[in-house]
Amino acid sequence: MATARLDIRLDEEIKAKAEKASALLGLKSLTEYVVRLMDEDSTKVVSEHESITVEANVFDQFMAACDEAKAPNKALLEAAVFTQNGEFK
């Protein structure tokens, strides 16, 4: 059950278009439409900012460099400590 509340003001034309879209999708209310859009978009935005996608050849180069590395340098060790201290997520 939803317990949080969001109050917004918007242009009448935007509201009318959103109400029409909501009805065309067979949703019960404008609120259901807005919540659905917010959920889908926020999931996408968070995913885009919390993941990295690289081309296969770039990944292969990265893995080859990792395989060739002898020992982590000072900067890498400091970065590892930084992430373990919870300063980076």
From TrEMBL:
Signal peptide: none annotated. The keyword Signal does not apply. It holds the Pfam family TacA1. GO terms for biological process: regulation of DNA-templated transcription. Keywords: Toxin-antitoxin system. Transmembrane segments: none annotated. InterPro entries: Ribbon_hlx_hlx, TacA_1-like. Belongs to the TacA antitoxin family. This is DUF1778 domain-containing protein.
